[in-house]
Automatic annotation (TrEMBL):
UniProt cross-references to Pfam families, sorted A to Z: GGDEF_2, HTH_18, Response_reg
Name of the featured protein: YesN/AraC family two-component response regulator
Entry keywords, A to Z: Cytoplasm, DNA-binding, Phosphoprotein, Transcription, Transcription regulation, Two-component regulatory system
PANTHER family linked: HISTIDINE KINASE-RELATED (PTHR42713), TRANSCRIPTIONAL REGULATORY PROTEIN HPTR (PTHR42713:SF3)
SUPFAM superfamilies in the record: CheY-like, Homeodomain-like
Species of origin: Paenibacillus eucommiae
Amino acid sequence: MMYRVIIAEDEPLARQALIAAIQWEDHGMTIVAEATNGQEAWDAYRELNPDLIITDIRMPVVNGLELIERIRKHDRSTKIVVLSCLDEFDRVRKAFTLGISDYISKLTMTTDEMQHLLSRISQEMSLVPEVKKRPADSLEQLQVKENLLKDFMFRSRFTVQEFLLFAGDMGWRIHHTSPILLCLIEIDDYSKLLERYKDDYGLLTKMSVLNVLDELLNECAVGEVIYDNHNRYIVVFSSRRQQGDEQFHDELRDALERIRFAFADYFDATLSIGVSEVYTGYVNLRVMYRESRSALRRKFVLGAARTIGAQDDSEDELSREAERAFTEMMNGWHMAHPQLEQQLKASVHEFLRRNEWEQGPVIDFFQLLLQMPIHVLKLSREYAWDHFQHYSSRLRQANSLREACETFTEYTHRTLQLREVSPVWSREVMEAIRYMEREYREEVTLNKLSAHVKLSSNYLGAMFKKETGFSPIEYLIQYRIVKAKELIAETDHRTYEIAEQVGISDYSYFSRMFKKMVGVSPSEYRKMHRYNDRWSEADDEDQA
């Protein structure tokens, strides 16, 4: 069954652009009516009983707010999304109090934003009987709180005064004049939790976690919770009364103990928690988020299932712990191939100088290291590929630096054993690989490669494919994408500039190949590694 959608927008071009930009069927939706004013939308609502209404606020005859009021007198279940302009603050605020599902700015709306919003609403509607363990309007409130806080913290769409008005309307349990502290709560081994509950989309898990956290905060502390990203939740605490930081931290410890116990009991899960410094006033929420995120990033080096404060473990101490883990890994190497051990250690020492201890850059580094034994030992991809893929997958799932180090050490030992039964690459193939890895920024063709190694194009192509499992061009593209990942994670260059820097002039092609090989778009990959560090939206060119 398709979900029925009504679009209410008095501007024909805006309405048609919205309709044409979205593949509605992909979200299980179909547009059953278009309305040019609130009265037409109201008549269509009564006749067609839609599941979702997307409405402008400022319309003739009957405006959007009047339309929402009429609908809410009849039911609370119809999803309503408001299209607004930035100068309509009072109207948007009123719409929230009437129980809308979401809102989006007409002037800044992108297709990706609409796709994401509709995907979420479609999932919510498909799971209505399961997620409604609390009243529907309460579930809507949780989503509204999330939108408001994220728009205030990350997008600066409201002033502090405007946000205070919203918070008052929503009945937030935060005393903004009291000490305030922000925690980021991250569920460890999140994929196992999703697998246990057979929750492919994560929506049921999200709502269950929000329910538990919201009830615990209501019982044991003054605070609010919203969903942040993937396996992470934002909890804002305020003190019950004016008091010193020490008493506030005592309250916080009690609350976090109860939360940890509840997650162990309900979900059989552990938590890693990053805690900000104590501030006064909502104006500091963005700084507090950044401090908590920075603290939480240290868990990959320091270990999971712990609470890490913003001032805990200085960068020097973090670097020492990381260096200790890498040093222990290298001390455990007793390789029968001195050249391989020497090159691996040189790469590790070079990485240590970069002081990048977040999970993304560390795992990316190990992924690059995985290729070195195959290259140095000249192993045939036909024999080594499954072995490589197995350990690549294990490294991506590593929850700590020490686990990654242990996994890689095991990989090197197994690879040396594999060498005894695996054919080696020919001199010509090795020379072609060295040429591509040296000249990847330039135009590299099969003819240039074959001339460089003094073989015919057809013969080199067949030999390369047999020995490595890839054609020369496939290998070159993979190498270029690896280098692009490094630049995206480590620089501020635009992704179209990075595409040119790695030798791919067609950005559209680069973006497609990146998503095919990495699983996410270039801008999504940058967000994964630098989430909210610069408080910016996705790169504009990724909308192309």
